[in-house]
Amino acid sequence: MPTLPGQLTPAPRLLLGPGPSDAHPRVLAAMTTPLLGHLDPQFLELMAETQSMLREVFQTKNPLTFPISATGTAGMEACLVNLIEPGDVAVVCTMGYFGNRMVDIANRCGAQLTVLEAPWGESFDLQRIRETLRAVRPKVLGIVHAETSTGAQQDISQLGRLCHEFNTLLVTDCVTSLGCTPVKLDEWEVDAAFSCSQKGLSCPPGLAPLSFSPRAVDALKARKTKVRSWYLDLTSIMNYWGGERSYHHTAPITMVYAIREGLRIVLEEGLEARWARHVRNHRALKAGLEAMGLTYTAAPHCQLPQLNAVRIPDGVDDVASRKKLLQEFGIEIGGGLGDFKGKVWRIGIMGHNSRPSCVLQVLAALESVLLSAGVKLTAGAGVAAAEEVYATAA
Ligand SMILES: Cc1ncc(COP(=O)(O)O)c(C=O)c1O
Q1: What does each C-alpha distance from 33 to 24, 30, 36, 67, 242 come to in angstroms?
Q2: Which of 146, 171, 238, 311 has its CA 20 to 30 A from that of 334?
Q3: The pLDDT of residue 393 is above 80
Q4: Is the model's pLDDT at 394 over the cut of 70?
């Protein structure tokens, strides 16, 4: 027999990229709980608790709220494949890589699609969306709330109301916003939203929280054709996560333990306090990065606190620098995607990782990497600027 691979002992890492972020230690502990059967009454109780906490975190009363057993992209696909029938008119607004993914999926669903584009790093103006809604009258409008490829935030607080003036369903990608910045589905009249487990909720990747408004459920029930995905067909999954609890697929028990604990942690802290914590740590990180001469790719009016995308200084090697950060400091940050590949670094301070020790560590490590790449900067300037923010912001 060939030699067995060694025992699993990866070097420790601090995950400060676009995700996954580090799981909270309490989440990892919950994941060591022995398995239950997926139809065990005890597990059904845990499912109900998870759904109820998820509603709270999504700020909704939507009965159809549960985690899809797959990553964020499956949440995106579930929303679109359930709400779009071939030939349905749809609009997708894209301002980065994940908006483009939504375009691709909507096309595969057979939508008659209009794509609205904003420059990378920008967000959409509501007036522009209003004009498109008036001209196109779509059944569905899809948009990304927190565009992880650019670090830009889309204000969606008035968008649901606007969509409803035109009888359009609003689908929002909350993969990078949930658990980090405000997401208020009912107040904002969002019809379908999805997220992930590995960012603001501080769990491993593997679940995609999803929520459908009663309006979206009506649209689902009014379909003339079967949903074109078996696994993501909400008309059947809803019988497992809904009242009947009849078998659909074997739930990933351990991941449900994880998200249940992740949601408990979010609600223990409180949503307002959590959002404020993300802003405070972002301010410190931003002050530090700017003190080292780095500039943000997202326009100032729409910068996300949890995902800080900055331009790589001229002459600095992207891959070599990130390798040094990883090997010498054990810190992972993200490179650019799509148009930003090789030009941008993405620093995520999400969920459990939105804390001063992470901010100060990444600033100190980046300084060392930049200095060794020949960038001229004042030693200690980044950390000092961040400390100043912490000293003044309560
Ligand atoms: C905004 C956004 N949408 C969708 C996704 C896809 O999620 P996943 O990689 O969990 O499938 C990501 C992943 O980072 C994302 O940032």
Answers
A1: 15, 6, 9, 19, 25
A2: 171
A3: no
A4: no
Query: Kindly report the CA angle at 74 between 69 and 77, in degrees rounded to 5?
Result: 140
- The confidence score (pLDDT) of residue 239 equals 87
Q: 98: CA distance to ligand 1 center in Å?
A: 7
Percent of the chain with pLDDT over 90: 96
Q: Which domain holds residue 361?
A: 271-392
**Residue 339: what pLDDT?**
86
Q: Are strands 146-147 and 152-153 parallel, antiparallel or unpaired?
A: antiparallel
The best mutation among 153, 175, 181 to test binding of ligand 1, ranked by most ligand atoms within 8 Å of the C-beta, falls on 175
Atom of ligand 1 nearest to the CA of 18: 14
Instruction: For residues 55 and 70, state if they share a domain.
Output: yes
Provide the number of structural domains found in the chain.
2
Same domain, 302 and 262: no
Residue by residue, what is the 3-state secondary structure of the chain?
Answer: CCCCCCCCCCCCCEECCCCCCCCCHHHHHHCCCCCCCCCCHHHHHHHHHHHHHHHHHHCCCCCCEEEECCCHHHHHHHHHHHHCCCCCEEEEEECCHHHHHHHHHHHHCCCEEEEEECCCCCCCCHHHHHHHHHHHCCCEEEEECEECCCCEECCCCCHHHHHHHCCCEEEEECCCCCCCCCCCCCCCCCCEEECCCCCCCCCCCCCEEEEECHHHHHHHHCCCCCCCCCCCCHHHHHHHHCCCCCCCCCCCHHHHHHHHHHHHHHHHHCHHHHHHHHHHHHHHHHHHHHHCCCCECCCHHHECCCEEEEECCCCCCHHHHHHHHHHHHCEECECCCHHHCCCEEEEECCHHHCCHHHHHHHHHHHHHHHHHCCCCCCCCHHHHHHHHHHHHCC
Mean pLDDT of 62-82: 98
Do 388 and 287 share a structural domain? yes
Q: Residue with the nearest Cα to atom 9 of ligand 1?
A: 72
User: Which tokens belong to 14?
Assistant: 């601090």
